[in-house]
Amino acid sequence: MKFIHLSDLHIGKRVNEMSMLEDQEHILREILNIIDEESPDAVMIAGDVYDKSIPTTEAVELLDSFLYRLSKRETEVFIISGNHDSSERLAFGSRLIDRSGIHISPVYRGEVTPFTVKGVNIWLLPFIKPAHVRPYFPDEKINSYNDALLVAVEGMHIDTEQRNILVTHQFVTGSSRTESEDISVGGTDNIDAEVFDDFDYVALGHIHRPQNCGSKKIRYCGTPLKYSFSEANDQKSVTVGELSENGELTIRTVPLTPLHDMVEIRGAYDELTAKSYYDGASLQEDYVYITLTDEEDIPDAVGKLRTIYHNLMKLDYDNRRTRANGELLPEAQVETKSPLELFGDFYRTQNGQELTEEQQAYLQNIIESVWED
Questions:
Q1: Could you report the per-residue pLDDT of 9-42, keeping only the tens digit for each?
Q2: Is 304 exposed, middle or buried (0-12, 13-18, 19+ CB in 10 A)?
Q3: Which of 131, 166, 244, 262 could disulfide-link to 248, CB 3.0 to 4.6 Å?
Q4: Residues near 106 by Cβ (< 8 Å), separated by ≥ 6?
């Protein structure tokens, strides 16, 4: 059985206040072309179809167009909701459109019924939290996301004598994040890869950088577009897999070419505005993050630079003044630190001292309470 694995379309997303709808429409057309070339038996979309739980009219229309065109292909399509989606809204009318070959996971209510394509069972498990699972398994101890996934998967009663694919949307421990994802409190949403041992392939969503999790059978395909400058050097792609009758799995990727790339450039104003620097390059139309190294601020720098770099998204300075003021926090630090650690950094900057243990415990309780809600 041949399949294509997609996730995290985030239709309707804005990056630095700029709409990505035109870029998303372009990349969905490119994905349709890849589907035509590959002729897969199944297309799986592993959550975060929309960027918001209440999507805009334009986002709904774009998804509607994409799914309509998918339904005209001879392939089965499987979709789950992610943490950015409303599972109720995404699943509206799903039983009516099943017959068109578009299958959307219902709201999780303690049971998952598989679909079968060429002898392979495909299980659709939308994004779930402990609170989603507890009501249906009152006798189980469910304190963490890992507990919730373990109980939910055990409740499926997987027949390992058959071939099984799981489509789900969670954070597997050890995965490499980017700055465009939601960061959890102290890793509370971590899932151990061992939870998925009974599956021949796990099509994951949630993490925006394509990667395997310990083995090629547990995989994030990543976003089809770059949604943060921490992804500037990433190559976006579509994951294509084949699962043989004996369960042997092969995985490869097909690269995607965006309408506008996302790039970072740095240098002095005079250097970056010299025609010899940008002439003939795609930089003028790319989404650009510029870091100026001039010691003095350039008057109306954004306006002037946008006459050359038409899609300038972000501008910073890196000089003696900004380094002394600590204005530039490395993206890697923001990406890896928990909310409590970031608040601790802020408190230390403002007060010149560390949080006490009592203050840390108090803040941790508040953060966890807000996150769970």
A1: 999 999 999 999 999 999 999 999 999 999 999 9
A2: middle
A3: 244
A4: 87, 91, 94
- Residues 6 or more apart whose CB falls under 8 angstroms from that of 323 comprise none
Q: What's the whole-number average pLDDT of the chain?
A: 90
Question: Residue 364 — pLDDT band, cuts 50, 70, 90?
Answer: confident
Among 8-12, 275-279, 306-310, the range scoring the smallest mean pLDDT is 275-279
The upper half-sphere exposure of residue 141, i.e. CA atoms within 13 Å in the direction of its Cβ, equals 0
Q: Which residues contact 52 (CB under 8 A, 6 or more apart)?
A: 12, 59, 84
Terminal-to-terminal C-alpha distance of the chain? 40
Which tokens hold the place of 58? 């334009």
Distance CA 74, CA 13 (A): 29
Neighbouring C-alpha atoms within 13 Å toward the C-beta of 99: 1
Pairing of strands 190-191, 171-172: parallel
Q: What is each CA distance from 198 to 99, 162, 365, in whole angstroms?
A: 29, 10, 35
The proportion of the chain whose per-residue pLDDT surpasses 90, expressed as a percent, equals: 75
The structure's pTM equals 0.84
Token representation of residue 307: 């006459």
Q: Find where tokens 């292909």 sit.
A: 73
CB atoms within 10 A of CB 344: 17
| Residue 289: both structure tokens together | 């993050």
- Specify the pairing of strand 201-205 against strand 163-169: parallel
Packing angle of the helix pair 339-351, 357-372 (nearest 10 deg): 140
